Amino acid sequence: LNPVYAGLGTTIFTTMSAMAAETGALNLGQGFPETDGFPEVREAAAKALIDRSNQYAPMKGQAALLEAVAEFYGRTQGLSLDPARNVLITSGATEALAAAVFSLISPGDEVIVFEPHYDAYAPLIERAGGVVVRVRLSPPDWRFTEAQLTEAFSRRTRMVMVTTPNNPTTRLIPTEDWALLARFCIEHQAYVVSDEVWEQVVFDGATHKGVLNVPGLETLGVKIGSAGKLFALTGWKVGFVCAHERLVSQMAKAHQFLTFSTPPMLQSAVAFGLGLPKSRFVEEVAALQRSRERWRAGLEAEGFRTLPSEGTYFLNIDLPGSGIALEGESFARRALKEAGVAVIPLDAFCAPGGDSLPVVRLCFAKSDATLDRGIERLTVAR
Ligand code: GLN
């Protein structure tokens, strides 16, 4: 048995969702919308399923989707991408992460991650023989400093992994922090794998700034997006990689032996969806922002202290700030048992054995009725 997996449990999302199902708890843990997103995109998938070929799609992605991705990012983020050279379609962003790590680093290379970080990163790096170098961030800003980067970077640094908007912290990387990170990455010629799956779920009129928008990172940056979050269809698992041609062809070599290609009816539907007008996406974000407000107001009224939520489906509760003297995991256990609400402790996004992070993550991509029920129940856990 490979020791990387032998030492791991089941993901916190699966564990909490199973416990919620078992106990009948409200599942505000795993991040997924209560109702399926974009009906017109689902209809396009249904139509493609019946009317078009269901045989292998091209390995790097259907031409129509490659073009739609390049066009979408050109229009929404000002990127200039050649669909044939700078884009690769993967079976979800997680496959894109795997393809990046497997094809861009070698055993012994160091990869810097910012803790708390999405749970898939460290096992992928370790399985590829890489060494995970963690930079610990703290609430409420969750920003890295120059001193932290100076300590983390070394001769062996080959890659940095970032997430913006961030899951679980919800923060966007500010322009000046991008510039600081770019300075280190250029000096060390380190790739920047940027998980931007939440790029469209950004609140309060903020603008997402991704790795390919950062001067100097054009040839080092790997931008990863996902249809699941763009269209609130998290089960679809259609991911996009955008990067310099050299990196895309290298990652395609990993992708061809991971999943080879991605279901064609989903690719057709995503290509259609990416062409929808901006107003359609704005509408979705506005609805999510209203949910965030309802959720925040309800929690604060019950005495919970929440941290800023700049994007994603999540709002985090600061436990000590709320007068709760429990670690995240103990609070999560109590919330499940006594209040019937499943939440995710941020410790699940940190290396075991480190300092505990007394924050829990809750998903608000739910109906008003569910959110109100959640607030009512959580008062018991206080
Ligand atoms: N991205 C989702 C979350 O953060 C979980 C995905 C999964 O369950 N693997 O909740």
Please outline the helices and strands:
Layout: H1 3-6, H2 12-23, E1 26-27, H3 39-51, H4 63-77, H5 83-86, E2 87-90, H6 93-104, E3 110-115, H7 121-127, E4 131-136, H8 146-152, E5 157-163, H9 175-188, E6 191-195, E7 221-226, H10 227-230, E8 239-243, H11 245-255, H12 264-274, H13 278-301, E9 305-306, E10 314-318, H14 328-339, E11 341-342, E12 344-345, E13 359-363, H15 368-378
Parallel strand pairs: 1-11, 3-4, 3-5, 5-6, 6-7
Antiparallel strand pairs: 2-8, 7-8, 9-10, 10-13, 12-13
Helix pairs in contact: 3-12, 4-12, 6-11, 13-15
Question: Keywords for this structure?
Answer:
Aspartate Aminotransferase, domain 1; alpha/beta; binds glutamine; 4-stranded antiparallel beta sheet; Aspartate Aminotransferase, domain 2; 2 domains; globular
Any idea of the CATH topology of the largest domain? Aspartate Aminotransferase, domain 2
Radius of gyration: 20 Å
The coarse silhouette is globular
- Report the top-level CATH class of the largest domain: Alpha Beta
Arithmetic mean of pLDDT: 97
Binned, the helix content reads: 40-55%
Can you list the ligands bound to this structure?
Answer: glutamine
Structural class: alpha/beta
Order of helices and strands: HHEHHHEHEHEHEHEEHEHHHEEHEEEH
The overall strand count is 13
- Secondary structure tally, helices: 15
CATH architecture of the largest domain: 3-Layer(aba) Sandwich
Signal peptide: 1-20
InterPro entries: Aminotransferase_I/II_large (IPR004839), Kynurenine-oxoglutarate_AT (IPR051326), PyrdxlP-dep_Trfase (IPR015424), PyrdxlP-dep_Trfase_major (IPR015421), PyrdxlP-dep_Trfase_small (IPR015422)
Protein name: Aminotransferase class I and II
GO molecular function, one term: pyridoxal phosphate binding
